[in-house]
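Take a minute with the sequence and fold tokens given here and flag any structure token that looks odd. Thanks in advance.
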Amino acid sequence: MSEPLAAEAAALDAADPLRGKRAEFVLEGDGEEGAEVVYLDGNSLGALPRAVPGRVADVVAREWGRLRVRSWTESGWWTAPERVGDRIGRLVGAGPGQVVAGDSTSVNVFKAVVAAIRLAGQDGHGRDEVLVDAATFPTDGYLARSAARMTGCRIRAADAADIADAAGPRTAVALVNHVDYRTGRLNDLPATTAALHAAGARVVWDLCHSAGALPIGLDAHGVDLAVGCTYKYLNGGPGSPAFLHVRRDLQPRFDSPLPGWNSHADPFGMSPDYVPADGAPRGRVGTPDILSLLALDAALDVWDGVDPTAVRAKSLALTDFFLRCVRTYVPAGRAESLTPDAHDRRGSQVSLRCVPDAEAVMAELVRRGVVGDFRPPDVLRFGFTPLYTRFADAERAARVLAGVLGR
């Protein structure tokens, strides 16, 4: 039964316009009997781009080792957050000068939510409610509640699909995940943003599970603020700097709750009074993490010349094919997809509910050379990174899963 699907996978890989990108990543594995590992966990940590080690070695040996402090100017360290931010901006549909790279996603969520509440206060509408996606990644919820406490707001949870309808005259901001981290459900960014704006509210989008996986169109859809990580589909490395997007017309009013010397209009003036910088630098806080930031810069080279719409097309084709393989190979009733079939509701991962013993099933998959991940209590997640994932990987993963579940 596997031969027709394996042959189809080979044909799809041969016709894939992105197939050459795979060679730009380190993907050798240590599977059983020397077999190459199928890596389907790029939604947690992207694979290493081959250009990164050499770039980091140069930064350490030459820029830090020889130039030392001169590298802040001569090597462009000082402007790296904005330069790297613009490279990310192209991939999320934001024009130059609206994205800054730095800090963690958590820190940027806090900045964005508090700043959005302050924008609402500046607008003078008496808005004191923060809406949060009920299925949000836990940290987003923790930070939203903290921001609400600190600003005297109340917080209310709503399903992402209903969050626009939940907005009322007191809503200041809604914090929404573009893709649900557990199920892979893609939420409607254009319609939700438009509806929240119509209700007089601001919106902060968490793009952690969509940046680098699909076109987003921040400018096209007038998104107020957005945050995201870079170690998943953008392959920036473990703990790589996150990013913060502030729409251009809102930047003069962006009031960060974390003013630091790096976002000061005159950072070396060392004034006791804070005067925020203009533009994207206003989103900075402290000294940039140069080693990880420049590793991310090198990682983004794999995106040169890549059209995000081509990435999206392959992502949907890969996940369609994987779901078909699962339905063909896996014993009935052993794995139920939580990920929507509809393309306009699907991110770039497939989540399968597997009972019982989902954790043990994933451990056995990893032992057999298929790496996904497990989320309690019963979810197997498989992330498809179109720049390096093959259709053959999808077919093999489904076949091995069937072998594990058929025990």
